[in-house]
Design goal:
Length: about 280
């Protein structure tokens, strides 16, 4: 089954600059794909279009985007069903998008808002089953011990893993991650990428992650899509990215390197166990 279908999508900004120039691509369900390219190449813009956060140009050649066979937008018009469809699409932002004053667990529980009655979400009335699901998600990403802390007390890497846990609670079938490791140190970046790779491998969740660091794309993503000036200039196996091609793609920019892989996440510690008991 096709998870993402983008057909001839363009996006222009003031001054006539094209952030996307007739972009077309297809991503199968269960793939883990790296979206690479220099700053300003169109990676973030493309992800926001796929999520239905931005409308494409309404030109002579109307673009179309579908997610799991359902229309997200066509001809620059966002589908009226887009809000419902977004329940299947988790978005991991570069700047985490957590509410710092709320607990980590509450932030993760917010992922369920699209699947529970609006009145319960507004009042923050989450059921025990939903809270247990949130704790399980936090355990899977390795930060269950921080469940009851304010999100603002976590490191950048921990906050990003909390954002991934939120997509698990959301029950997203597609995760779009926009430069999720751009502001992280190498060790934290590795943990975040391993977390994304794990949910892709174990849950069959389709993952599309924009990366500036090519080494991470080579390690974690079997397929790479390279963008330059709003166009796709490569779409194929990550192993096919040659040094000469990457030098042309990035020009004077120097993509970062990935450190050695992390052996795994720690087991549930005493604080995480206490938090789980608190919810029982």
């Amino acid at each position: 089954m096709t998870a993402v279908q983008v057909t001839s999508v363009s996006k222009s900004f003031r001054g006539g600059r094209r952030a996307l120039d007739r972009v077309s691509l297809s991503i199968a369900q269960g793939e883990m794909v790296a979206l690479i390219g220099a700053s300003g190449s169109g990676k973030s813009t493309l992800l926001r279009h796929i999520a239905g956060l931005v409308g494409a140009d309404r030109g002579e050649e109307p673009g179309r985007i579908e997610v799991f066979g359902a229309e997200i937008q066509s001809g620059g018009r966002i589908s009226g069903h887009c809000r419902r469809l977004r329940a299947d699409v988790g978005f991991v932002f570069q700047q985490f998008n957590l509410v710092g004053r709320l607990s980590v667990m509450t932030n993760v529980l917010l992922g369920s808002l699209g699947r529970i009655p609006a009145w319960r979400g507004t009042l923050g009335l989450f059921q025990n089953a939903e809270k247990h699901h949130a704790m399980e998600a936090l355990h899977r990403v390795g930060i269950a011990d921080f469940a009851l802390q304010k999100a603002s007390t976590l490191s950048g890497g921990q906050q990003q893993r909390a954002a991934i846990a939120r997509t698990l609670v959301q029950k997203a079938r597609l995760v779009l991650a926009d430069e999720p490791i751009a502001s992280l140190d190498p060790a934290s970046a590795t943990k975040v990428m391993e977390t994304l790779a794990t949910v892709n491998r174990e849950d069959g969740i389709t993952v599309v992650v924009s990366l500036h660091q090519v080494d991470y794309a080579l390690r974690y993503c079997p397929r790479a899509i390279a963008m330059q000036a709003g166009r796709i200039v490569y779409d194929g196996p990550s192993t096919g990215l040659t040094p000469a091609f990457l030098a042309d793609l990035y020009g004077s920019e120097r993509p970062g390197s990935a450190p050695a892989a992390d052996p795994g996440h720690p087991p549930l510690g005493p604080v995480g166990s206490a938090a789980l008991a608190y919810l029982s």
